[in-house]
Amino acid sequence: PVTILPAARMDNQVIEAVKKERVHQLITLSERLAFDYAQGFVGEMLDVIPERYEGGRLIGYSDNYLQLSFAGEPNLLGKRCRVQLLHANSTLSEGIFVRGFDHEATVSAY
Fold it and tell me: For 43-85, what is each residue's pLDDT tens digit?
Protein backbone atom coordinates (compact mmCIF):
# COMPACT_ATOMS: atom_id res chain seq x y z
CA PRO A 1 0.00 0.00 0.00
CA VAL A 2 0.99 3.60 -0.57
CA THR A 3 1.88 4.80 2.93
CA ILE A 4 2.30 8.47 2.03
CA LEU A 5 -1.46 8.89 1.61
CA PRO A 6 -3.31 10.08 4.73
CA ALA A 7 -5.77 7.17 4.50
CA ALA A 8 -2.90 4.68 4.86
CA ARG A 9 -2.15 6.08 8.32
CA MET A 10 -5.74 5.99 9.60
CA ASP A 11 -6.96 3.53 12.20
CA ASN A 12 -9.40 0.72 11.39
CA GLN A 13 -7.86 -0.29 8.06
CA VAL A 14 -9.78 -2.75 5.87
CA ILE A 15 -8.11 -6.15 6.11
CA GLU A 16 -6.28 -7.53 3.05
CA ALA A 17 -8.72 -10.39 2.49
CA VAL A 18 -11.63 -7.94 2.27
CA LYS A 19 -9.67 -5.66 -0.06
CA LYS A 20 -8.87 -8.59 -2.37
CA GLU A 21 -12.50 -9.74 -2.38
CA ARG A 22 -13.70 -6.23 -3.26
CA VAL A 23 -11.17 -5.98 -6.08
CA HIS A 24 -12.32 -9.37 -7.39
CA GLN A 25 -15.96 -8.24 -7.27
CA LEU A 26 -15.14 -5.04 -9.17
CA ILE A 27 -13.19 -6.89 -11.84
CA THR A 28 -16.05 -9.37 -12.28
CA LEU A 29 -18.55 -6.51 -12.56
CA SER A 30 -16.36 -4.69 -15.07
CA GLU A 31 -16.03 -7.80 -17.24
CA ARG A 32 -19.79 -8.42 -17.14
CA LEU A 33 -20.59 -4.84 -18.10
CA ALA A 34 -18.04 -4.92 -20.94
CA PHE A 35 -19.55 -8.18 -22.24
CA ASP A 36 -23.10 -6.82 -21.98
CA TYR A 37 -22.05 -3.71 -23.90
CA ALA A 38 -20.40 -5.75 -26.68
CA GLN A 39 -23.34 -8.17 -26.78
CA GLY A 40 -25.60 -5.28 -27.75
CA PHE A 41 -23.73 -4.94 -31.05
CA VAL A 42 -23.78 -8.59 -32.15
CA GLY A 43 -24.98 -8.74 -35.76
CA GLU A 44 -24.21 -5.06 -36.33
CA MET A 45 -21.86 -3.74 -39.01
CA LEU A 46 -19.01 -1.79 -37.41
CA ASP A 47 -16.18 0.26 -38.86
CA VAL A 48 -12.84 -0.99 -37.55
CA ILE A 49 -9.29 0.20 -38.17
CA PRO A 50 -6.98 -2.79 -37.70
CA GLU A 51 -3.82 -2.00 -35.73
CA ARG A 52 -2.24 -5.46 -35.46
CA TYR A 53 -1.96 -8.64 -37.49
CA GLU A 54 -1.58 -11.86 -35.49
CA GLY A 55 -1.99 -15.43 -36.71
CA GLY A 56 -3.91 -14.52 -39.84
CA ARG A 57 -6.26 -12.20 -37.97
CA LEU A 58 -6.53 -8.44 -37.85
CA ILE A 59 -7.17 -6.76 -34.51
CA GLY A 60 -8.41 -3.23 -34.06
CA TYR A 61 -10.98 -0.99 -32.43
CA SER A 62 -14.38 0.07 -33.69
CA ASP A 63 -15.63 3.63 -33.34
CA ASN A 64 -17.61 2.52 -30.26
CA TYR A 65 -14.43 1.26 -28.54
CA LEU A 66 -14.95 -2.48 -29.06
CA GLN A 67 -11.79 -4.43 -29.79
CA LEU A 68 -12.45 -6.87 -32.63
CA SER A 69 -10.54 -9.69 -34.25
CA PHE A 70 -11.33 -10.84 -37.78
CA ALA A 71 -9.69 -12.82 -40.59
CA GLY A 72 -7.97 -10.62 -43.13
CA GLU A 73 -4.76 -9.72 -44.89
CA PRO A 74 -1.98 -7.49 -43.51
CA ASN A 75 -2.51 -4.98 -46.34
CA LEU A 76 -5.66 -3.87 -44.48
CA LEU A 77 -3.66 -2.59 -41.47
CA GLY A 78 -4.48 1.06 -40.83
CA LYS A 79 -7.41 1.02 -43.28
CA ARG A 80 -11.06 1.34 -42.35
CA CYS A 81 -12.86 -1.98 -42.67
CA ARG A 82 -16.53 -2.85 -42.35
CA VAL A 83 -16.84 -5.82 -39.97
CA GLN A 84 -19.92 -7.68 -38.77
CA LEU A 85 -19.72 -8.52 -35.07
CA LEU A 86 -20.42 -12.25 -34.62
CA HIS A 87 -19.37 -13.12 -31.06
CA ALA A 88 -19.14 -10.73 -28.12
CA ASN A 89 -16.43 -10.92 -25.49
CA SER A 90 -15.49 -8.58 -22.66
CA THR A 91 -12.00 -7.99 -24.07
CA LEU A 92 -11.74 -9.17 -27.70
CA SER A 93 -14.86 -9.79 -29.77
CA GLU A 94 -14.91 -11.70 -33.06
CA GLY A 95 -16.23 -10.52 -36.36
CA ILE A 96 -16.18 -11.21 -40.07
CA PHE A 97 -14.70 -8.88 -42.66
CA VAL A 98 -17.41 -7.50 -44.95
CA ARG A 99 -15.58 -4.91 -47.02
CA GLY A 100 -12.76 -2.41 -47.09
CA PHE A 101 -12.75 1.22 -48.12
CA ASP A 102 -9.95 1.38 -50.71
CA HIS A 103 -10.55 5.02 -51.59
CA GLU A 104 -9.58 6.28 -48.13
CA ALA A 105 -6.09 7.20 -47.03
CA THR A 106 -4.25 4.77 -44.80
CA VAL A 107 -4.17 5.73 -41.13
CA SER A 108 -1.02 4.94 -39.19
CA ALA A 109 -1.63 2.45 -36.37
CA TYR A 110 0.88 4.30 -34.16
Answer: 999 999 999 999 999 999 999 999 999 999 999 999 999 999 9
What are the b/e assignments for 38-58, b being 16+ CB within 10 Å? beebeeeebebbbbebeeebb
The answer to whether 27 and 19 have CB atoms below 8 angstroms apart is no
Contact between 66 and 38 under an 8 Å Cβ cutoff? The reply is yes
Whole-angstrom Cα distance, residue 71 to residue 53? 9
pTM of the complete model: 0.75
Nearest-10 Cα torsion for 31, 33, 34, 40:
140
